[in-house]
Amino acid sequence: MDHPQTPRILAPHLSNFQHRIVRMLGKVVQLRGETAVIDAGGQVDVILSRDSHLTVGHAVEIIGKVDGNLAVKVQAATDFGTNIDFNAANAVVEATHRYKDIFYDEN
Amino acid sequence: MELEAGAEMNYNNYETSYTSYGAGGGAAGGGFIPGEGSQQSPGGRREYTQDSLRPVTIKQILEAQSEAGGNDAFKIDGAVISQIRNISTQTTNITYRLDDGTGSIEVKQWLDSDTVDQTNPTKAKLVEGAYCRAWGKLKSFNDRRSVSAQIIRPVEDMNEVSYHLLEATAMHLHFTRGAPGSAQAGTATTNGSAGQQQAAGGGNYGGYDLAGYTPVAKRVFQYLREAPQSNEGLNQHEIAAKLGIDTADIARAGDDLLAGGLIYTTVDDQTWAILEAD
User: Closest approach of chain A CAs to the CA of B165, in angstroms?
Assistant: First the structure.
């Protein structure tokens, strides 16, 4: 019922969000069975869940927890197709951190 | 500039105009959709003439303050884009739990008995996990907030998510800092996009993120950090003299740093100190 806030981040932000649940939009670069690599302002290792279906070359939005190795353990993944403007998406991430009042609480 | 690009996207004919942004709400109520008007609360007719909708995040909805005196009038009504987490269908309404990453809220769409039987193709796409755009009024009942939606439709082009969040940010800045064109808001937006290109090349500013600031702003910040000073900080003329930069440029750099929350004014508007992060 309760859904925690999921700040939108890119690869360079990972270290500031360790052990938090985040939301990342990136392009799937590589699938390796139970893990995958996405490009979200830099390469990010993603640990897949059983029901996450990623497609190489597609954009994917991942909600997951950042672990101590800066990998993201997926809780939910949504396919965003192949028509995503990553410049706009990355500008969103920048805006969310610059004007956090309307996006997320620090903790 | 991303916003301009976004605005050209053609969302299907549900698009509502966000006309009267002004707090006073002009005579022509902004976002209320004619033809969907059969949704007055049972308690009686309410005046909708002051309504206007603006794009918001759910966090803004959850933190919106109710207007003094108004029983259930909020300062924010709006449009949100978010992911559907849960759907519960009742006889009189469908309740969607929406989550946009900034928070989650229940959105109720009251069913019109005339339309119940129609098989609505957009409804079929409103499934758990899908993104939707919802327009509606903010309600509060027993301290529980919800949105009573006039329209909920599925999002088909995922770029609309970015578009909405940037638009919500632009509106937020419009209300908190004034319209673009007034100097501060203008530079803040420009710096935002410049930040994209410069993000990689940030210098060492002791944990502060100065990506996106002008070189002058970076020098001013660095100088404020390093120069000996009292707790009143330093005057812009002193900084200008020390750095050998025109005072007007220093003032502009200061405005940017103030807008970004990196410095604050002390004894007067021209005297600044570093805002220590906690």
Answer: 7
| Residue bearing tokens 């970004």 | B260
- Burial code (b: 16+ CB inside 10 Å, e: under 16) for B238-277 equals bbbeebebeeebbbbbbbbbbbbebbeebeeebbbbbeee
Least confidently predicted of A51-60, B29-38, B69-78, B262-271: B29-38
In CATH terms, the fold of domain B215-274 is: Arc Repressor Mutant, subunit A (1.10.10)
Neighbours of B11 (CB within 10 A): 14
Q: ∠ at Cα B206 (B204, B208), nearest 5°?
A: 90
Say what the ipTM of the complex is. 0.93
Closest B-chain CA to A61:
B158
Is B54-177 CATH 2.40.50.140? yes
Nearest to B2 among A8, A88, A104 (CB): A88
